[in-house]
Amino acid sequence: MGLSPRPEPRFVETKGDEPWITTKLDAFVNWGRSNSLWPMPFGTACCAIEFMAAAASKFDLARFGMERQAFSPRQADLLICAGRVPLKLAPVLRRIWQQMPQPKWCISMGACASSGGMFDNYAVVQGIDTIIPVDVYVPGCPPRADVIFYFLSELLEGRFPELSAKTRFGA
After folding, report:
1. Which of 26, 109, 148, 149 lies in disulfide reach of 82, CB 3.0 to 4.6 Å?
2. How many domains does the chain fold into?
3. Per the domain annotation, does 10 fall within a domain?
4. Which of 6 and 124 is assigned the larger pLDDT?
């Protein structure tokens, strides 16, 4: 009938006990993304000092794959806004957010970034969610490092549900 014969199946030959692994490309890419977030800190006040302490050796952000702080918005996928944002910085913050590639997330760290804090005046933005979309709000004035780690883990489990702890360990 004009059909060509079925091609011979090809097999991958391995030498001895060489290990090899197979997976879906999407699962591999999501695993890589979840284990290597590149945050861009946008710190303007005391919350930024607490974030620096979280990145230091005592608390170590490296457990989330955040050894590399991206100080360029084009290389970051997580914006951490720590501290109060004056109205003059609002356009700068929006431009930084627009320059970040997709997928991207935002953490509003501290009372000042989330709601303006104690600075209820004309010069301070009353919550950065009026400028950019926020994924996670971290409460506190300033929030402690363990609270930052808790909300980072919540962000990772919420954005990558197939990589959550329940799925990984079969719970």
Report:
1. 109
2. 1
3. no
4. 124
